[in-house]
Amino acid sequence: MDNREFRSIVDEYGDMVYRIALSQARSLTDAEDIVQTVFLKLYAKPPENTSPERVKPWLIRVTVNECAGLWRTLWKRRVTLGEVTDATAPRTEPSAEASLFGDANHQRLYDALAALPEKCRIVVHLFYFEDYSTAQIAEILQIREPTVRTRLVRARKILKQQLKEAWEDE
User: Fold this and answer.
1) Which entry of 11, 23, 44, 121 is 20 to 30 Å from 65 by CA?
2) Tens digit of pLDDT for each residue in 39-78?
């Protein structure tokens, strides 16, 4: 793979990889690290066939694996953000995560999606935000299609309950 081809892949799929990483990692900095790692892997050892119909599923699969690997690290299991940041330092600007959404409804939806179990979260993201069919999701994630449909049903049920509670609170 030459640099021009690599650059076109990064330009075309960079946003998609970032969205998946952000929805899975739930942290801007972790998502950026995952995106960097995914594209480093693409550059170091690209798939045999770099056609668009093969590269996109490969990138999604590697991104999902990197996100899963992030949560298995000893650092993520033992250290919380409160232990790392200085709680006494005054905050002069809002966090990047808080500034992503201008509308409170969008923030509630993002929070509800982030609260989904990881297995359901990736299926919902691929189905609703990346417009994949359940058969394509099953192929990408290397699981059975009925499993994908079951995870979608579970996720919808959880989201319905969480968003219903949010609306009732207002």
Assistant:
1) 11
2) 999 988 888 777 777 888 899 889 988 888 876 665 555 5
Burial class (CB in 10 A: 0-12, 13-18, 19+), 63: buried
Instruction: Name the one residue in this structure whose structure tokens are 């330009």.
Output: 11
**Tokens 């996720």 label which residue?**
155
Q: Which fold has domain 103-170?
A: Arc Repressor Mutant, subunit A (1.10.10)
CB contact at 8 A, 88 and 52? no
Q: What CATH fold (topology level) applies to the domain 1-88? A: Rna Polymerase Sigma Factor; Chain: A (1.10.1740)
